[in-house]
Amino acid sequence: MENIRVISEGTQFDLTIERLCYQLIEDYDDFQNTCIIGIQTGGVQLAERLLEKLNEILSGTKIPFGKLDITFYRDDFRTSKKPLAANVNDMSFVIENQRVILIDDVSYTGRSVQSALSALNHYGRPQSIKLLVLVDRRFNRQLPIRPDYIGVGIDALDEAYVRVEWSKREGEDKILLFQKKI
Fold this sequence. Notes:
It is a single chain. With about 180 residues, the chain is α/β, with parallel strands linked by helices. It has a single domain (about 15-75, about 85-155), classed as Rossmann fold. It contains four helices and eight strands. It is globular and about 50 Å long.
């Protein structure tokens, strides 16, 4: 049996996206020498949403955008019981001397970000990398990786699961927390 709690939806969800955009604008101004890279798949959806809002706020500023697959960089990909299906890498630029904004939907153990950092090495040596996440699960971090930009912080135990739903895919924007009932 599971207990489902809505963490964010509707206007609150939209305000979180907007706040993250304004934080990026404060730090990156005109986004010169800056690119946005979404980690497949949840990070890509968040990145696309942020880019849409940034374009609206900044009236058409073009920011290079890439989609990064980390499937075969994960430290657990060989232990999977079923064949893994990789997503497409879509990075038509190198990140050499660029300021990279790496985007993921949920930060939990830090292992996905570690995998993304390894995968990024194939695209050049960036000037800097900052991490933006929609949800930061502050407990259970296994690696010393912390987001620079956080939409929502959630304190949840191991038994909990966080899911982000997007209006383009599920019909509504929501952050849900699933907790097993004991």
